[in-house]
Amino acid sequence: MRFRERIFRLKNLPAGELNTALRRCLSTFDITLLGVGHMIGAGIYVLTGSVVRNTAGPSIVISFLLAGFASLLSALCYAEFGARFPKAGSAYTYTYVGVGEIWAFIIGWNIILEHMLGAAAVARSWSGYLDSLMGNVISNSTIARVGNLRETSSFFGDYPDLLAFILIVIVAIFVAMGSKVSTNFNSFLTILNMGVIVIVVGYGITFADFNLWSGNNPVTGVSNFFPYGVSGMFAGAASCFFAYIGFDGLATAGEEAKNPSKSIPIATFASMSIVTFSYVLMSASLTLMIPYDQVHPTAAFSDAFALKGADFARYIVSLGALFGMTTSLVGGMFALPRCVFAMAEDGLIFGSLATINPKTQVPIQALLIFGSITAVIALLFDIETLVEFLSIGTLLAYSIVSACVIVLRYQPNYNVDEGHFDNGGKLRFSIPFLKFLDDLEPGQSIYYGISVMISSFFMTSLGFTYELWNGSFCSQLFLVFNILISILSFLFICAHYQNSTFLDFKVPMVPFIPSLSLLINTLMMVHLAPITWVRLFVWMAIGFAIYFSYGIRNSKEEVKNAEKFSKSSTYDSVVSEAADKP
């Protein structure tokens, strides 16, 4: 096979294939609570304090809504993939079956990092809440004995967090006992946490002061609701994307769902609705209780109640925070080894990581190795560093999924009964000065359209980030030009016929909804710190080194005489077979 065919080959998955080495024992209710537990602790207790204090202020309410809306658009795309490939198993599997190996590797490699950093951030925040309850005894005694890590690098936390390290080890041991044990424990703590959230919102709103949201600050003159401007609100939304990583973990749980094609879409939409509603109410309650610049960055809610003299509520919210972060940590550690297992089973990373414990049916070696790395990350690194790095990987994965939905909708579908391809991927009309497009295979020009559209979205987002409309004439012209290219590339995609593939669920208004998802994701990625992009490139460099030295040669699709699944070869082979028939 040619190099291009090898990296874009598709995973061979027979229609309706549900076989797995893992145990199918999870109901829709189990998976819904797994998603709620994974998201609710991370979003409320890890993010809210630091984003309110340093990034968005009270406008975090809109940040959560925007991040939730963008996640919902991505969830629609996930649901279509689940309908296409009912075996399920995360964005990695969906992309591998649908659009090619290299894209699947990029997503899978980022999802692994996503779950490691997410679990580390939650463990470190869990430790911070307990430390706050104990009057900072843990942090002060650790710094006194070990010293301050920040003197070495700003990437590190204030001190080596031994409690976070031990917590991840304990949760990893618990997860190793089996999926049903993990999910039952998660469901119990999630229900308790939801009860605590109801109490916190109900009691916290009694301290509400709406003057904290209205008007301008008399000293600085800036808006009380947008103290960091609209740009801060968008930057907050980019960080808040971390709060929604749990819904990708739901797709991973599809490998152990009793009925993944039904359970995954229902659990995704149900858990996201519950979680977004909770985020908005909790962040509104916090920013109406105390001024944004008095919010504690790591123990926001317990500290806010302490400032109001409500010590009883302080202990209740701290207990809820520990419950919520424990469920979030269980969710992250549950999904992590299963993502590694999926890639290792396909041969894209080292095959030994696909080892399954015969008794618990858990990928034990993947859990041991990547759980240990996660524990070390939690020991050393700062929460804000982890969250920023985490968000860009999540946004990148969701963006690729959205782009893949557009690609798949505009590929030719072979109608077996009629013995020919439909019009999928064909232009509705010839475009002047672009006659070469007529010679391309159906669906190929979509790749050009999406590439141009994503590039112009990125440039447009940069323009809005740096407010080029207030700059020189050349800056304004640059912004207008990229907006025009974005619109033209979108219209170019619309100028193609969609295929007639029947699915149980399809994203409505394609290509508009996936394109809108791409635009919002790009806008939020651009608002992340530049050093975050550097970290992403380093992580991807490590990943590509593994893939091109090991994965490309050991992929299951590399097997001699395996069917070639690149789009061009599939199209050519089916056409030639159809031509040979009488």
UniProtKB/TrEMBL annotation:
It comes from the Eukaryota. It is a multi-pass membrane protein. InterPro entries: AA/rel_permease1 (IPR002293), CAT_C (IPR029485). GO terms for cellular component: plasma membrane. Keywords: Membrane, Transmembrane, Transmembrane helix, Transport. Residues 505-555 form the Cationic amino acid transporter C-terminal domain. The chain crosses the membrane at residues 21-47, 59-79, 91-112, 162-178, 185-205, 225-245, 266-292, 312-341, 362-383, 389-408, 445-466, 478-497, 509-526, 532-550. GO terms for molecular function: amino acid transmembrane transporter activity. It is found in: Membrane. Its main location: membrane. This is Cationic amino acid transporter C-terminal domain-containing protein.
